[in-house]
Amino acid sequence: MTNASPTLDGLFRRILARKPDALALLDPCDKQRVTGDRPKRLTFAEADRAISALSAHFIEAGLPANSVVAVQLPNTVEFMLTVLAAHRAGLIVALLPLLWRQAELTVALNRTGARAIVTSGKIDGVVHADLAMNAAAEAFSIRHVCGFGHELPEGMASLDLALSGESVTTRPVTQDGRRAAIISFDVTADGFRAVPRTHLNLIAGGLALSLESDVPQGSIVMSAFAPSSFAGLTSSLVVWLLSGGTLALHHPFDGDALEQQINEHSCDTLIAPAQLALRLAEIDMPSRLPSLCNLIGLWRAPEQVASGPLWTTEQAVLTDIYLFGEAGLFSARRAADGAPAPILPGPHCAPHDVPGSSIAGEIFLTSRGTLALRGPMVAPMAYAPAPPSRDSLVAQPPRDYVDTDYAARLDRSTGAICITAPPSGVMAVGGYRFLSQDLQQWAKRLGQGALLTALPDRLSGHRLAGRAQDNARAREALAELGLNPLMVEAFRDRTNLA
User: Fold this and answer.
1) Which of 150, 350, 397, 445 has a C-alpha 20 to 30 A away from that of 329?
2) CATH 1.20.1250.20 fits domain 426-491
3) What is the pLDDT of residues 372-418, one digit of tens each?
């Protein structure tokens, strides 16, 4: 096995060689509620055996090297083990958000040509095993369906059984960071996009996060952010591998369980949605969360950072992470006054504004008045504009940047970039994006007088609201179409709400 350049499995093996008996992965304390399974605590040696067993299962299932395995799992130990196992087997991981149902799953599986899908029997009471089986039936490329948990449907292979067997089957895989590692999914004004990234892209994103927020070596990191995106995976799996410490996982969100986990494991770093992180300033952190000294807040709506509250807690340092869908991210630690740090155009360093520090990427404004990203974590080819028509004699020059479509301008007094509005025509509800025209098309299927729209929301960017002659029948119809719960629950009855 040659070491051409770093990979995620390569980073894991380096830590394993140094401290095999150190604690590596910790499950959510309420995992029994989420999946019906008991929480796991794994050392690096135990995690390595599990990764090897899962990798052997993928190889013995006949999945060729460089094929795609789709993963829809909660924020538990199994997610991290599956990603590393797929890479050890030479596979590419497609990240499937948990709220996706049959419609989105089928599109993603067909778009990537996935050969396998991995899920859990039940997640938060939803039978994801059946969702995976139904989506796989509509994807011609799927050859293997497998899952964790109990009462899996007929035809779905048990990965718990694979873990207990601990097969030693392997195959040679070149550890080359330039190889494709993951595929995540984005929605832009031009529609649905699959965004592939290499190991080096992921490591670059993780370095930008960990260096700016100054995550120390050997940290006990608590991740309370869904890992089914580029930002979610880099802020959890990659930051953990770069720090060489312990990764504790919280399946979003249960405030009491999160506080219990942080204290039980003496976590020093918390990675969470920015709105959740900012709320911690309202509690007595020194007495309730004494070990916490480092907060990393991820903003899915980066245009809201400047208008957010000040960070007033001296116990912990807060770092703002600006997310632009799957296009990329940049980070900036809060200033001493608790205000968001100014974001200047040009090369973006990590740590922020420290002379001589590493270049994490470049931020600039396009001629359209939108913000663009360039750098080692960005995948410009995935966002390249459509090729010109055949009768065009002028070839478009290749791009080395991604236009995020976020409207932005320069502040005349400071020269800092001000992000003013999200992409036009794209609605974001938490981490899920939709085209506004798609909402209208789904509403039309419900008959005359039905309305489905996105309303501005301070916390999540937008929230969905629907109206139909019979809301209950509208919910049933949307569920039968395989749409996710955000659309279905937009038609919930509000007459009895206070």
Assistant:
1) 397
2) no
3) 999 999 999 999 877 666 655 565 667 899 999 999 999 999 999 99
